[in-house]
């Protein structure tokens, strides 16, 4: 995929010409041998650049392009099919096998489907939480309610948004941070620390007790209505918070309560009333032996059972607990072995802050493999849209042969893609297996949340090179990493601005 950069040719020496190069342009300029150093050509093209597109220039380009038979064929072919399918690198596909020599014993079933919503982080996390519960309750198939967490997250995010709006009330409305807060206050997306906050406060329930309503599966209209109302309410709260008098303080508190009640009403009417976190539910099910069983627990108790469990999926493997899990990230823009956080990003106001331990990619992958060897699935965040095919279920950095179709290649590295906005953490999924050769990973097995119609009945294969380029995060148990990595969690975090690429929620 990457562009191969050739070593620049040496500049001509002599009295006829010197070639100056800048920004990919080569320009010849006559330079007499006796020219003094003060008269040397400037380090940029001497001719003036064209500031506007000229029809004659575009016509020349068209003529030159169409002179090539391959380009004329490409125009005809691209007219009726997506270019990425036409340019699929079949040679690369030959090694994208769904064969793995290290697979966790309980991968979890069924394959879930987030449908037309951005709830991937909730599906990925509940697919991790369900594994210890499946072992405890002897289940072959089991799904936790993502809608339950989605419901509470919307209300918590509204409260978080109000608090950040109040905290920035004295900043100009056009301030970049304020505008970022207003941009998407109740996004469907989230992160591991955010779902951990929800489970600690509200617990978990089986999917059968709170299934998806229409607006959970199709969240765009819900989000538009909430966002429109929250922006309107934000202007009122900013106005009250910027005044320094007793009346405004009381009015601010009353207005915030009223506004939250309005948001609660919208969310409840569209998603339905969820189980009360403090009241027991009754859940009846068949175990793997076909025996009918019944569970009476509160959502908080049920969540604690999953979140604080010390589970050994394999008899001799180390115990793993979701309550000890944290995010390793690979962000080459920032210093490695450094704790990172993002300013004013979160959901539960009194919950744990969002934290990332930035490490080299080899350290991140070592943590993932340790989790798989312990028999546990791994929540991970990536840029799923790059060089992936949802029909084939393949994520391969060599998947599309751009040079064949366009005579180009893409040359930015991971840090440059992050810096320019070309790449970010757009999706969360679960890793359940890896294929190792000489203890080095070759490809990874990925459980997605796009239903069985995507990939190999819902499963994807991710090449190790794709992981290097487009995976940014993996959530692992702190007991399965070195003391040097655990020590990073005790650092004071470097605070990234709210608009940083690591502030994008999967």
Automatic annotation (TrEMBL):
<dbReference type="GO" id="GO:0006508">
    <property type="term" value="P:proteolysis"/>
</dbReference>
<dbReference type="InterPro" id="IPR000169">
    <property type="entry name" value="Pept_cys_AS"/>
</dbReference>
<dbReference type="InterPro" id="IPR004134">
    <property type="entry name" value="Peptidase_C1B"/>
</dbReference>
<comment type="function">
    <text>The normal physiological role of the enzyme is unknown, but it is not essential for the viability of yeast cells. Has aminopeptidase activity, shortening substrate peptides sequentially by 1 amino acid. Has bleomycin hydrolase activity, which can protect the cell from the toxic effects of bleomycin. Has homocysteine-thiolactonase activity, protecting the cell against homocysteine toxicity. Acts as a repressor in the GAL4 regulatory system, but this does not require either the peptidase or nucleic acid-binding activities.</text>
</comment>
<dbReference type="GO" id="GO:0043418">
    <property type="term" value="P:homocysteine catabolic process"/>
</dbReference>
<comment type="function">
    <text>Has aminopeptidase activity, shortening substrate peptides sequentially by 1 amino acid. Has bleomycin hydrolase activity, which can protect the cell from the toxic effects of bleomycin. Has homocysteine-thiolactonase activity, protecting the cell against homocysteine toxicity.</text>
</comment>
<keyword id="KW-0496">Mitochondrion</keyword>
<feature type="active site">
    <location>
        <position position="427"/>
    </location>
</feature>
<feature type="active site">
    <location>
        <position position="120"/>
    </location>
</feature>
<feature type="region of interest" description="Disordered">
    <location>
        <begin position="1"/>
        <end position="49"/>
    </location>
</feature>
<dbReference type="GO" id="GO:0004197">
    <property type="term" value="F:cysteine-type endopeptidase activity"/>
</dbReference>
<comment type="similarity">
    <text>Belongs to the peptidase C1 family.</text>
</comment>
<keyword id="KW-0378">Hydrolase</keyword>
<dbReference type="InterPro" id="IPR038765">
    <property type="entry name" value="Papain-like_cys_pep_sf"/>
</dbReference>
<feature type="compositionally biased region" description="Polar residues">
    <location>
        <begin position="25"/>
        <end position="39"/>
    </location>
</feature>
<dbReference type="GO" id="GO:0070005">
    <property type="term" value="F:cysteine-type aminopeptidase activity"/>
</dbReference>
<comment type="subunit">
    <text>Homohexamer. Binds to nucleic acids. Binds single-stranded DNA and RNA with higher affinity than double-stranded DNA.</text>
</comment>
<dbReference type="Pfam" id="PF03051">
    <property type="entry name" value="Peptidase_C1_2"/>
</dbReference>
<dbReference type="GO" id="GO:0005739">
    <property type="term" value="C:mitochondrion"/>
</dbReference>
<protein>
    <recommendedName>
        <fullName>Cysteine proteinase 1, mitochondrial</fullName>
        <ecNumber>3.4.22.40</ecNumber>
    </recommendedName>
</protein>
<dbReference type="GO" id="GO:0009636">
    <property type="term" value="P:response to toxic substance"/>
</dbReference>
<keyword id="KW-0963">Cytoplasm</keyword>
<feature type="compositionally biased region" description="Basic and acidic residues">
    <location>
        <begin position="8"/>
        <end position="24"/>
    </location>
</feature>
<keyword id="KW-0645">Protease</keyword>
<keyword id="KW-0788">Thiol protease</keyword>
<feature type="active site">
    <location>
        <position position="448"/>
    </location>
</feature>
């Amino acid at each position: 995929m990457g562009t191969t950069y050739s070593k620049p040719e040496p500049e001509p020496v002599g009295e006829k010409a010197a070639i100056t190069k800048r920004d990919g342009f080569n320009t010849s300029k006559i330079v007499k041998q006796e020219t003094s150093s003060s008269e040397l050509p400037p380090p940029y093209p001497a001719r003036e650049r064209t500031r506007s597109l000229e029809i004659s220039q575009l016509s020349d380009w068209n003529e030159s392009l169409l002179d090539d038979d391959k380009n004329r064929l490409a125009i005809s072919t691209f007219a009726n099919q997506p270019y990425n399918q036409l340019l699929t690198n079949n040679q690369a596909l030959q090694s994208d096998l769904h064969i793995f020599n290290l697979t966790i014993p309980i991968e979890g079933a069924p394959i879930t489907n987030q449908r037309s919503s951005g709830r991937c982080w909730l599906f990925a996390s509940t697919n991790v939480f369900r594994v210890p519960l499946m072992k405890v309750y002897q289940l072959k198939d089991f799904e936790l309610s993502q809608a339950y967490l989605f419901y509470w997250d919307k209300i918590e995010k509204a409260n978080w948004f109000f608090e950040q709006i109040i905290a920035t009330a004295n900043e100009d409305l056009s301030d970049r941070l304020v505008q970022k807060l207003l941009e998407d206050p109740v996004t469907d997306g989230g992160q591991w620390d955010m779902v951990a906050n929800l489970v600690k406060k509200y617990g978990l329930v089986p999917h059968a007790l709170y299934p998806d309503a229409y607006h959970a599966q199709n969240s765009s209209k819900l989000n538009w209505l909430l966002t429109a109302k929250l922006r309107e309410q934000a202007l009122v709260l900013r106005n009250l918070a910027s005044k320094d008098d007793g009346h405004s303080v009381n009015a601010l508190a009353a207005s915030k309560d009223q506004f939250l009640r309005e948001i609660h009403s919208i969310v409840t009417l569209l998603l339905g009333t969820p189980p009360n976190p403090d009241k027991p539910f009754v859940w009846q099910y068949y175990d793997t032996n076909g025996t009918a069983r019944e569970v009476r627990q509160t959502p908080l108790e049920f969540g604690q059972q999953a979140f604080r469990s010390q589970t050994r999926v394999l008899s001799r493997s180390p115990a793993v607990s979701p309550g000890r899990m944290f995010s390793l990230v690979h962000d080459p823009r920032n210093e490695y072995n450094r704790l990172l956080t993002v300013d004013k990003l979160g959901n539960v106001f009194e919950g744990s802050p969002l934290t990332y331990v930035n490490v080299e990619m080899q350290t991140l992958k070592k943590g993932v493999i340790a989790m798989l060897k312990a028999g546990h699935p791994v929540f991970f965040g990536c840029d799923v849209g790059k060089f992936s095919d949802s029909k084939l279920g393949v994520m391969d950095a060599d998947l599309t042969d751009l040079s064949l179709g366009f005579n180009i290649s893409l040359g930015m590295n991971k840090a440059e893609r992050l810096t320019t906005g070309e790449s970010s953490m757009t999706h969360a999924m679960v890793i359940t297996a890896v294929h190792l050769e000489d203890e080095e990973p070759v490809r990874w097995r990925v459980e997605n949340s796009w239903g069985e119609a995507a990939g190999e009945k819902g499963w994807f294969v991710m090449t190790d090179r794709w992981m290097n380029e487009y995976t940014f995060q993996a959530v692992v148990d702190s007991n399965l990493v070195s003391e040097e990595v655990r020590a990073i969690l005790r650092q004071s975090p470097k605070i990234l601005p709210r608009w940083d690429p690591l502030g994008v929620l999967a």
